[in-house]
Amino acid sequence: MAGKSILVTGSSSGIGYDAVHGLRDRGWRVFASCRQEADCQRLRDEGFESPRIDYTDPATIEAGLAETLEATDGTLDALFNNGAHATPGAVEDLPVDALRAIFEANVFGWHDLTRRVIPVMRAQGHGRIVNHSSVLGLVTAPWRAAYNATKFATEGLTDTLRIEMRDTPIHVVTLNTGPVTSKIRENAIPHFERWIDWKSSPRAKDYEARLMKRLYEDSGPDTFELPPSAVTAKLIHALESDRPRPRYYITKATYLMGVAKRLLPTPALDWLVSKGG
């Protein structure tokens, strides 16, 4: 993979951080973008090229991609849309502005960057676009409505793009991860505290009994939780295989829920996913 270039978003920790190291070790030229400039600088200190890209700020999307393309003489072999956050809370407590905010970060920014990259890949005659979805793009889970909605939207956009790109040399791939060690729960706390008035909710007791403990207490790994390297391994296959799969499941939870989605009647599936809240 010497000389191959990839732009990875959300590289500051967790899955993105593991991915940029794993890809660099395989010879990829990695542009490890982050939302915060301090994280970009930390990665530059580790030897990465790290343009700042904040999905909620179109100016950084334009500038970060321009910086990447300037360094590669206008080419880019792959894009890994990875950066995202969660805003926990019950649907009835989720303000519309909170939903707008998470869609800016998890959907609209991805779409903006992807549309800017496609002409580059068309011009060079090849490319890979890998979108990081979730088991929560296949089934929903309580208390995660905002994140669920963005991943379902990502699934729709990615599936459509994959079909539309069939007559081009651009491969479009979805990664559906289940529980993977990351900072997504920790990083969700500021969004929860900003948007969710849980103490005034008719579900206040449920918040106290279930969501607050999950958010603020370290209860150890989730069932079926895997390290970020499990995602990197599938990402490498998606990027380097001559015939990448359109979709990669990661963790047993994703496989189980994928089967359940196909086989179970809706009431049974609702009962099953309700146990995950």
Distance linking N and C termini = 42 Å
What is the N-to-C order of secondary-structure elements (H for helix, E for strand)? EHEHHEHEHEHHHEHH
Poorly predicted runs of 5 or more residues: none
Overall pLDDT score:
96
Shape: globular
What is the count of β-strands?
6
Main sheet record: 6 strands, parallel
Number of helices: 10
Strand order of the largest sheet: 2-1-3-4-5-6
Strand content: 5-15%
Helicity level: 40-55%
Instruction: Using the CA coordinates, give the radius of gyration.
Output: 19 Å
Structural class: alpha/beta
Summarize the structure.
This protein is α/β, with parallel strands linked by helices. It contains ten helices and six strands; from the N terminus they run βαβααβαβαβαααβαα.
Structural account:
- This protein is an alpha/beta fold.
- The chain has helices at residues 14-25, 37-45, 58-71, 96-124, 145-164, 184-195, 204-216, 229-240, 252-263, 266-274; strands at residues 5-8, 29-32, 78-81, 127-134, 170-177, 247-250.
- The chain has a six-stranded parallel beta sheet, with helices on both faces.
- Helix 3 runs parallel beside helix 4 and helix 4 packs parallel to helix 5.
- The longest helix has 29 residues, at 96-124.
- The radius of gyration is 19 Å and the shape is globular.
